[in-house]
Amino acid sequence: MLTPHGHDSADKTDAALESSSRGMRVLGLSFAVLILTAVAQAVVFTFSGSVALLGDTLHNVADALTAVPLAIAFWLGRRMATRRFTYGYGKAEDLAGLVIVGVIAVSAVLAGYQAVQRLIHPEEVHALGWVAVAGLVGFLGNEWVARYRIKAGREIGSAALVADGLHARTDGFTSLAVLLGAGGAALGFPVADPIVGLVITVAICLVLRDTAREIYRRLMDAVDPALMDQAEEVLAATPGVRRVGSVRMRWTGHVLRAEVDIVVDHRMSLIEAHGVAVEAEHRLIHEVPRLRAATVHADPDGPSDADHHAPLSDHRTPGAARISGAVRPPG
């Protein structure tokens, strides 16, 4: 309450930089944990020969490597906007998401290939106790990383980081599947190990589908409809706003930007109408999560026989001017 605050470009840039810095810290620590987990599993694989454990190890390595493109994206996102990249470099996160999808796809192919080869050419699995321990270690490491990434990703608004966290969580459950393979082999069913390897491959493919869908939505500028509802309610409650026109929002990395139209009394002076628009932006930034900037266009509500957008009528396709329904303020 005692600290003054503002909404100029420096304030918004500082907040965005802090989000990127936190993302970098999360990636660095989770990368170290996953690499240690994968190394421990790889050591056990070398003397056990468990193809299920190999598939889980490859999956953990792939999950750790996804931190690299994300880290590059967060680093790029810290750069200032230029005359060519006028919105900055936040979209690099979405490109990193595409790399993540590719890495997950490659890990699925490798794990599936190894499992099929072991079904065709069976080999005995050794050190089943150590295989079980390695599976448990994989689960614990991945679940910790999943919680860490998902929590941070949601707090800073990074879809790529949340997707990576969900990927790690599924890795954890596939690590538990390694225990089933070891148990089956211990009970005299050596084929259980490659079968579990195939199950892990299917699990990786499911993660691939969910991750690709999330990244696709970001690339297509999709937002949660609940955010649209919230923005409309905030605008409608702003003093001086008679109606709410179109509301558009898009993600730039882990930051939201908005473009909105409001209708004000046509008898207002330019200064008064501008004041209403500034107050509307101020409220949006305060009340809509992750919103960093809003462009507010004020339209006059009259006179009744005036068409203030007549020069643009030939340049607008039907429905392009309005995405959300008009919302009247209370009273």
Summarize the structure.
By secondary structure, the protein is mainly α. The chain has two domains: 211 residues, Up-down Bundle (Alpha-lytic protease prodomain-like), CATH 1.20.1510.10; 91 residues, Cation efflux protein, cytoplasmic domain (Alpha-Beta Plaits, 2-Layer Sandwich), CATH 3.30.70.
What does this 3D model show about the protein?
This protein has 331 residues and is mainly alpha-helical. The protein folds into two domains: 211 residues, Alpha-lytic protease prodomain-like (Up-down Bundle), CATH 1.20.1510; 91 residues, 2-Layer Sandwich (Alpha-Beta Plaits). A three-stranded mixed sheet has the order 1-2-3, covered by helices on one side. Strand 2, helix 9 and strand 3 form a beta-alpha-beta unit. The longest helix has 40 residues. The chain is elongated. 39% of the residues are buried. The N terminus and C terminus are likely disordered.
